[in-house]
Each structure stands twice: as structure tokens, then as C-alpha cells.
Amino acid sequence: MDRRPLTRRQQEFLRALIDLHTEEGEAVHYTVVAEYLGVARVTAYEMLRLLEERGLARREFQRSEEDHGPGRSPVSFRPNALAETALTDQSPSVRISGEWLRIKTQILEKLQRGEGRSHEDLLKEILDHLPRRRSPEVYMAEMVTALILGLHSLREFAEARRLRNMLGRIGLPGELDLAAIPGLSAGLSLVERFNKQVSGALLNQASKYQALLSELSAEKRRLLAEFTREVVKVIGG
Known about the structure:
Number of domains: 2
Helix content: 55-70%
Radius of gyration: 20 Å
Low-confidence stretches: 65-69
Number of strands: 3
Largest sheet: 3 strands, antiparallel
Shape: elongated
Mean pLDDT: 80
């Protein structure tokens, strides 16, 4: 087995494979993993093949009883006995939910596909979902994404660009902490050209955000800050 540390991306796909395998009780087709994480099928296949090469997954070729024609069998994967241990060894203090992995990946994929656009549809989708989110990590990830998208809508203003750049360094030594998010949301609400529906929605969620942030472990706060920096990087090009 390859002993090098798994990248964050590899950990996400391995966690998804483990969760889906546990739920289904059988090998998982790579397209199911793609749908679960909201990524392209080829992306899921290549990542699962990489996990196989690292000794953490096993590939299987399966055919239904009705399929007697020629051609290659559908490809499925299942985690091997070392998969869960590999995740535990590298992140012993945090157990990120499958929902977090799925939503995080979907947000980044949608932002990348919409490069250069206003992302208004994604912002509306996030604001619609926010009040119903149960997972603290997912809720907070969508909160910071909504704020960043709000700043992006004001990108012609130097102050908005400055705030977005500050969020691009959030969580790093000497930079903003995640606790600054509600204050930035309140500040945006005072900007005349900022969408009042968006600013109202963010302000309504500020107290919930602060309460959930106080309950997050240091490791989960680190992951959320890392995600925030990723979003800024994708939007900023």
C-alpha cells in the first residue's frame, strides 16, 4: 500500500465510496459516486482508479443476467479493509459527513463551470436551502459561499474586491477568522447597490451561524476556512 498521505480530494472520494458501499452493501458503480459528489463521470472513474492503485479500493466488472451481448462489463468499486483506517490515520479528530463532501464538491464544480458569470442561479439556490440545512458544516459552507457570491456581484467596486481578497486568506495566521462572516454580511447590507433580498437572508442567518461556529471543532473550522479560500480562488480566477 502507498503510504503517502492522501490529498483532501482523495479523502473525499474515499469517504464517499465507503459511505455508499456501507449503504448499498455491494460494489459501487463509478457513476453512482459521480452523482453522489456531483462531479463528472470521468472524474469519479479516474479518482477511484487512483485509490485502487494506492491499495484502498478494488475494481470489479459486473454484468446483469439480462446483458449477454459483447463488450466490457460495467465497472464498480468497493473499498478494501484498509480504506477506513487510511482515513482515520490522516484525520483522527474529524468525521466529515457525506453531505458535506457532496455539497462542497457540487459548489466548487458549479463555480468552475460558471467561470466568468454572475452565479445568480447558484446564489438563489443556496439561499433557498439555507434555512433547511441540518449539517452544521454544510450550512456554514453555504453561508460563506453566499457571502462571497454577494461580494462578487459588486466586483466593480474596489472595497468589495478588497473584502473578497481578505476572505481568500481567511483562517491563515494573522488574517480574518471565520467569526468575521456575520459582520461582513451586516456591512454588505448597508451597500446601496447590494441585492436587498440577499443581504436580508444573510442577516437573518447571522445568529445561527455564530452559534454553530462556536460548536465546531478546531479541525472542522480549519476545513471550513480552507473551503472558503477555495471558493474565492475559483471565483477570482
